[in-house]
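It would be a great kindness if you could assist me with a short task in structural biology. Thank you for your consideration; the sequence and its tokens are set out here.
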Amino acid sequence: MPRHPITDFLDTAAGPILDVRAPAEYAQGHIPGALSLPLFSDEERARIGTTYKQVSPDKAVLLGLDFFGPKMRAMVEQAKKLAPGQEVRLHCWRGGMRSGAVLWLLELGGFHVNLLDKGYKDYRGWALAEFARPRQLRVLGGYTGSGKTAVLHELARRGEPVLDLEGLANHLGSSFGSLGQPPQPTQEQFENDLAAALAKLPNDRPIWVEDESRTIGGLGIPAAFFEQMRAAPLVVLDVPSAARVQYLAADYGRHDAAGLAAAVLRLRKRLGGLVTKEALGAIADGDMARMVELVLAYYDKSYGYGLEGRPATVVPAEGTDAATNAALVLAAAKTIATPLKPTSYDSEAASSPAH
């Protein structure tokens, strides 16, 4: 039974990762790609914990055995479904009794088990270290509607290393950012997924990442990584306002009116009562361009404030075509040593840059 440190467990050990913690622990945050094979249910875990604290550790162990015994066969059968090759990577919270019990059971059932030495707790420590590890970042900025996300995807298609923070967060950054997106992960899971994505990126090439505020929807970018983003060279796509309005009107027009209205109402304190009323009226009339024009006034002002004091290389663009703008961005990145500051007010949303 090999015990692996976290890097070996992730990079060289074989087999699917089986997480034997309780379902609630797994839902809160797990190693990306790990499969849930809980030793105890949430209720059973709670009862064992209460017995441990209020009665005795010995009684808690016996209670755990009572729960474990009847489910041993089912766990082996489930493990065979999850890992037909009968080699697995296994962990609990900190490499203690739970993973030890399942290790014994699976080895008895004919499995080769690779155990994470210090459990999921060690993965969390590894993730925090990934956020602090220095990287060559290139931050792509631009006012709301500049099509930055599409440009990032085009850069990735051209072989550039890209980190898609909004993709990991299931949110496009603005008040409208949840439209058409699946639910956001927990903060812990977002961090786990982000660390895994960072670990896959090269160390010897610049990595493109979209300019974001400290939060994406309800999730926070880890402080150590956010500081690197703020210190990295900034390339700002400067797309005319009319093109951005057209781009967003086409995008938002695919969504239902109720979702759009809810997004506008979340901004009502910042837009003001009159603008909010006009924007809601435009949605009711199906006039997406008018709604976007009203909301962009707020986002442009906000992003303009966010650019103050941040040196940036400005990339003038005629429209929002991703392929064209990706080529412009790559060409401009070669001159990144002589940053300029954007002078146009026609660019993207600040404290919450959207697509």
About this structure: The chain has 17 helices and twelve strands. Residues 288-307 form the longest helix (20 residues).
